[in-house]
Amino acid sequence: MFLFASRSQLRAMLFCGPALVLGSVFCVSITQAQNAAPAQPHPDRTHIDEDLAGLNRGVSIGQVSVAPDGKRLAWIQIAKGGTEIRVAPLAGLTRIDMAASQRVTAATRPEQYCREGDLLWSPDAKSLAFFSDCATESEQADLYLSRIDGSAARRLTELRGEVEAPAFSPDGTKVAFLYVEGATRPPGALAAMKPPAGVIGEDGVEIQRVAVVPVDASITFAPPIVTPAKLHIYEFDWRPDSKGLAYVAADPPGENNWWVAKLYTQTLETSGPAAPKPILAPTEILGPLHGLQIAVPRWSPDGKVIAFIGGLMSDQGATGGDVWVIAADGGQPRNLTPQRPASPTWIEWDGDNNIYVSELAGSNSQLVRLGLHSEGTGDSATTTFEPPVFSIPGNVGDGRFEMSLSSTADRSLFVLHAGTFDHPEEIYAARPGHATTSGLQGITQLSHVNDGVEPAWGKSVSLSWKSDSYTSQGWLMLPIDYDPRKKYPMIVEVHGGPASAVVGHWSKNGNLSVAAFSALGYFVLQPNPRGSFGQGEAFTQANRKDFGYGDLRDILAGVDSVLASYPVDPGRVGITGWSYGGFMTMFAVTQTSRFKAAVAGAGISNWQSYYGENSIGQWMIPYFGASVYDDPAVYAKSSAITFIKQAHTPTLVVVGDRDGECPAPQSFEFWHALRDQHVPTQLVVYPNEGHGFVDSAHSRDVIHRAVEWFARYMPPNP
Questions:
Q1: Any idea what DSSP says for residue 553?
Q2: Pick the CATH number of 158-188+206-280 from 3.40.50.2300, 3.55.40.20, 3.40.190.10, 2.120.10.30
Q3: pTM of the model
Q4: What are the Cα distances from residue 692, in Å, to 29, 186, 579?
């Protein structure tokens, strides 16, 4: 997939709600008058739009990438009609010389803006590679190379398909990237599924492979594809000698089989690629990694060891777990971070005996250095963690992978963009062992493109509370212009996943509008209950075979914690969420009457029927322990439909008609059941949308309807 937005932005479609990007809306609705609350005047949509427009403040920064020698920095800014790549020298490693920045582009006219991204410095720091669709009217991305000398960027490919994740070979002679030749849709389950036709599961299956392009060649019309035709590649890494790859792959279809993917190595011979060698299959080994997921393979500089992240992950691309290592020729994997109360999401080697790890620890994103002692994969090996290089209450990244960072070749400088609920995104640097000049601990602010930009929503605070034997964490966003003498309603927004977490971030209006709810006078609680990232693998695995029970207790305990400390009206508390959050919304209203209104986005109402409807059924085995055909009871006990007679909460249900992750029939089933129980309900189905919405009019309509629904049943000013 051609990533113009960051993966974190794309995952926001899943974790936080539909993304921004016109069409008609199919709406099925019914409200039973005998159970409806007294009619409240709907907020004027013009007023809502004014509030939403006010949320889009500041300059949006995408990927950042520092040159290997640390002398220059490249970054993405959102520009009118596309994106803009800027390159600037680093002035004393304390600031970006914006006045000296230059635009790097494949555009042939200064006024032309295209979609350009996936920045990649050559190992010698003299060239910048990137994808751009400037040369076509079809939005087809091609690979370009700029020498950063004022000359035009050179086009390296003429492709026909989806591309992402370019990577220079260590010797700088080639660029490899993921490529779905002839693709009709982006890979993965977020995009709208193709309408079913032909032999299902056999016809038109699209496979993502690794293609390699020499940087000194003329335009390549058909780049050599070096991985097998029957393996779908998710992530890869070059072997240090540039003669091979390590990758995570599975049999097609790719959107379904990531949960059973294996780790492979493959030599790239001069005469052609050799056969891949599987060196780790989690479904076939014993121990704590059995049946779990693997991601982010990273070859050690000496080529002897491959590090990766392994754990229970509910979505490909949403990474968390423990850091593992395995010998490059196979063997028993070793966990380097057992019982660590944090969730690693990205790793990078620092020499052969140290690994930098980005991790979510409670409410903070941080970078730590892990030291390996003795042989990295031996039984006698030990590991140590140094104090964090930085730890901040916000999201970080270089824009390509969640919580990833760009670094110099010697790992003396890390560059990232970061934002919190209270501070818009800026570019920052972190230097291990050096003092900082930023208000955020451990990092130095390099850019100032958003100086003076203030949030259009209320203040956010991190909360912790006890539930059973666990301590849960979450974020509470206060209403705008908060007055502690007044009583307010509150909306609980449950993240997707479930293996995910709410992290402090500069809010946009492309989700189920946490910031918009705050701007309209609501408290908003965003809990990270058991099953979330941030407190280690045991916490992430704590809702296996228990969906909806312990995690709901954690959420309700969080509501109680807020009620004890803030002026929230217990008679005006609602719940919403997307994906797993949509399921939790559906399930919660069958378990408790505490919520007075609900909005369920792309939810799951019946795990038994869902098993046979979705396009990603493999993910359920690690969570439920068996297929629905082997253990139907474990699926029934967590299904909202099982308890539908207990539901009384007015519920708005929204979904895309071509959602493969949480198919529309799940929303139809829940709406139909509520209607039969005479519960006020409405179902809205959006055409040509998948799990992550791409049509801005549809996204805005979801926000409008959600605001109106909550205003009807629990208005901010009763």
A1: H
A2: 2.120.10.30
A3: 0.92
A4: 23, 12, 10
